[in-house]
Amino acid sequence: MDRFISIFRHFQSNSESVMNGICGILALASVRIYSSFQFVCPCLPIYNTIYGIGVMFIPPIILFLCGVIVNKHSLLMLEEWLRPEGQRTKNPTLLRYMFLAVVQRAAIAPVVWLVVALLDGKCILCAFSTSVDPGPFVNVSSWPRGDLLILLSKVPCKDLTDDQLQHNLSFPRRAVYRYLRSVSQALGWTILLVLILTAFLSRCLKPCSKYATHLQSRYWSNYIDIEQKVFEEACCEHARGFAHHYVIQFFDSMQDGFQTDCHANHVRWAEGDPLHGITNKEQLDKLLTEWFNTKPPLNIRPVNQYRVNTDTGTSRSSPQPQHQPTAPHSIVKHTVL
Question: Is there a single domain that holds both residue 172 and residue 302?
Answer without folding.
Answer: no
